[in-house]
Design a protein that fits this description.
352 residues; Aldehyde Dehydrogenase, Chain A, domain 1; Aldehyde Dehydrogenase, Chain A, domain 2; six-stranded mixed beta sheet; 12 helices; 11 strands; 15% strand; acyl-CoA dehydrogenase activity; CoA_reduct_LuxC; Ald_DH/histidinol_DH
């Protein structure tokens, strides 16, 4: 199977997914194998929503829209242009996927197949409806994928390398269990934003998308703010108001009410606006509906702290801070070449 055939198949998948990025879903006659898969995928989306209350229609559509834009022919070609695929020996790569946001493990799935390997997937119970169906679509538009994609809920066996994503606790288990295999092991990470007090309303509004998209459940979601001493949060609260309707989502509201009650009973100081709470805290991983913040004295001292804590941080969001790689509003719009934990998955797979 040639690289060009794999690229063509995934670009066809991108066209298929583009039909589900906005409601109402519109069936396009030009999409290959649409008669076989269009109605079935609508059903899978419904099952995903029923199975996981965090997978709302809006969140599913946002994820599908993002992937449909990434999986276009020119974008895939640009992503792969720097790699050498000439000496790849096909192996079986196992992927243990998280389930915090829709299709969160898709980039690993794509990377394994696009590099010419077979993939053995163990999905999270929270997100098991979409990817097997999309795998069937790939096998239909490119029959050479048949026999290269398998799923299991049992113990992983007969694989040559592994990519595993989990909590800090499960990562320790992964490191022990897979110590004899080439591996990428991912732990808990969160994203931070750095504010100066000079941000515009539009910048802070964009930042609210980084905070609230997917209810803040993704590692690329901003869970902590670094602000200068004396920072006035009024402008911030005004800007994030665009997300105030999130409190009407019952799972989010339950978390908000619970965490607020805990903080009040513990007599923690906090700021809140009816749908989000701000708490001064040195940790990075904040609960749902809570955003931690911490003061910094200078850009140099903050830069040093972030370098020391880099193993806990996925994205640094700012339009001015020198070490930032992500602008406000861009955390949930990663490119194919934006690798989790800054570990080049494709390079790893080509050397496996």
């Amino acid at each position: 199977m040639e690289l060009q055939e794999r690229i063509n198949a995934f670009s066809k998948l991108g066209s298929f997914l583009s039909q589900f990025s906005n409601s109402p879903y519109t069936k396009e006659d030009t999409v290959e194998a649409n008669d076989l898969f269009f109605d079935g995928f609508k059903h899978q989306l419904q099952l995903a929503r029923e199975h996981n209350g965090w997978f709302t229609k809006a969140n599913l559509e946002y994820a599908l829209d993002s992937w449909s834009k990434s999986l276009n022919y020119s974008n895939i070609k640009s992503w792969l242009s720097k790699y050498n695929f000439k000496k790849v020996e096909s192996k079986t790569v196992a992927i243990i996927m998280a389930g915090n946001i829709p299709l969160v493990g898709f980039h690993d799935f794509l990377s394994v197949l696009i590099t010419g390997h077979k993939v053995l997937i163990k999905q999270s119970s929270n997100d098991r409806h979409l990817l097997p169906y999309l795998a069937k679509y790939l096998e239909t538009v490119e029959p050479n994928f048949k026999g290269k994609i398998s799923f299991t809920q049992e113990h992983l066996e007969n694989f040559d390398a592994v990519i595993a994503t989990g909590s800090n606790n499960t990562a320790r288990y992964f490191e022990y269990y897979f110590k004899g295999k080439p591996s990428i092991i991912r732990k808990n990470r969160n994203s931070v934003a750095i504010l100066t007090g000079r941000e515009t309303h539009e910048q802070l509004e964009a930042l609210s998308d980084d905070i609230f998209r997917y209810y803040g459940l993704g590692c690329r979601n901003v869970s902590k703010l670094f602000v200068p001493k004396g920072y006035d949060f009024d402008a911030f609260f005004k800007a994030i108001y665009k997300w105030h309707n999130i409190i009407h989502e019952h799972k989010y509201a339950n978390n908000y009410d619970y965490n607020k009650a805990v903080y009040l009973m513990s007599e923690f100081e906090m700021l809140e606006n009816g749908f989000a709470m701000l708490k001064h805290d040195e940790n990075y991983a904040s609960p749902i509906a809570v955003l931690f913040y911490e003061y910094y004295d200078s850009a140099d001292s903050l830069r040093q702290k972030l370098e020391q804590d880099q193993e806990y941080i996925q994205c640094i969001v700012s339009d001015t801070f020198p070490s930032s790689k992500v602008h406000f509003g861009e955390t949930q719009k990663p490119q194919l070449w934006d690798y989790a934990d800054d570990v080049d998955t494709v390079e790893f797979l080509l050397k496996t």
